[in-house]
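Weekly sync, protein design subgroup
Attendees: M.S., D.O., the rotation student, P.L. (late)

Item 1: inverse folding check
M.S. brought a backbone from last month's batch and wanted to see whether the design step gives back something sensible before we order anything. D.O. pointed out we never logged the input encoding, so this time it goes straight into the notes. Structure tokens as presented (277 positions):
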């Protein structure tokens, strides 16, 4: 049985996040906060819950801010006493994240996703590794995802999700609207939800140049070679692509805080969908 602690989790953190410019003008997209914590932290907590605690962060745009966040993690997230004369610090909070191992990999400011993955090849020291984007959360069972990947023996597994449509759905008969559904979930097709599993053969499909886009030629060629399988996740999934997405995720988190006050005895039943920890 594979020890999850030995499987690296690669997270793409280097994009400029231009569709969320309201926030990303000042910080990298993975540091945009949901409920007072960076999106990246939420993603890492999901993996950590299933025992995946060895992370490789593919840095690019404003990557130093991500380094600074974790280098100052305990100070930022703890009460502490500082003796100025000696610079001795006493911390009062205990963090479950203390056993995380994080590799910060500079993969280029202007690099595309495929180039970023290729450039962290040297840090992958196990047969399998996980890969995801730094802007999406889900209530996905990562242990089931890993077991599914091991069962088929192919190079890669992509998690397919059914997102909600951004548009209202009209059911029409003879020019009359019979049914209107506001932003229904798309049930008949799947989109790339991230949360990949690969073995090291995937690096043969990648090139070390800034223009290599992971989702184009590499995955297209892998598919032609019949090396990619889909793990169908029909639970909650949400990306943080736009400011509207950011508001939705923050509203889901904030609803928990309201429910804490109104129904404190039922606190366990009203967590945000992706908060599995």
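Designed sequence read out in the meeting:
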């Amino acid at each position: 049985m594979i020890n999850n602690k030995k499987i690296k989790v690669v997270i793409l953190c280097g994009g400029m996040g231009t569709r969320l410019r309201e926030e990303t003008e000042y910080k990298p997209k993975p540091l945009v906060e949901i409920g007072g914590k960076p999106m990246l932290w939420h993603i890492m907590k999901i993996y950590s819950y299933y025992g995946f605690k060895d992370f490789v962060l593919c840095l690019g745009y404003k990557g130093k801010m991500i380094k600074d966040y974790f280098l100052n993690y305990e100070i930022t997230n703890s009460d502490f006493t500082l003796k100025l004369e000696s610079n001795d610090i006493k911390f009062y909070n205990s963090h479950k994240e203390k056993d995380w191992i994080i590799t910060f990999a500079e993969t280029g400011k202007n690099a595309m996703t495929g180039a970023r993955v290729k450039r962290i090849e040297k840090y992958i020291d196990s047969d399998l590794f996980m890969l995801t984007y730094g802007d999406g959360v889900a209530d996905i069972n990562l242990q089931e995802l890993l077991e599914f990947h091991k069962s088929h023996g192919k190079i890669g597994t992509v998690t397919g999700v059914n997102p909600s449509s951004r548009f209202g759905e009209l059911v029409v008969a003879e020019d009359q609207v019979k049914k209107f559904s506001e932003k229904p979930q798309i049930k008949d097709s799947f989109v790339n939800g991230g949360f990949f599993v690969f073995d090291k053969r995937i690096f043969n499909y990648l090139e070390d140049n800034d223009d290599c886009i992971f989702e184009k030629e590499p995955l297209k060629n892998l598919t032609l070679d019949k090396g990619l399988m889909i793990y169908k996740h029909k639970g909650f999934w949400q990306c943080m692509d736009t400011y509207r997405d950011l508001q939705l995720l923050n509203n889901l988190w904030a609803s928990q805080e309201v429910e804490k006050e109104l129904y404190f005895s039922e606190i366990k039943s009203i967590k945000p969908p992706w908060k599995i920890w």
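Discussion: DSSP finds eight helices and 16 strands in the chain. The first helix runs from residue 21 to 24.
Action: P.L. to compare against the previous round before Friday.
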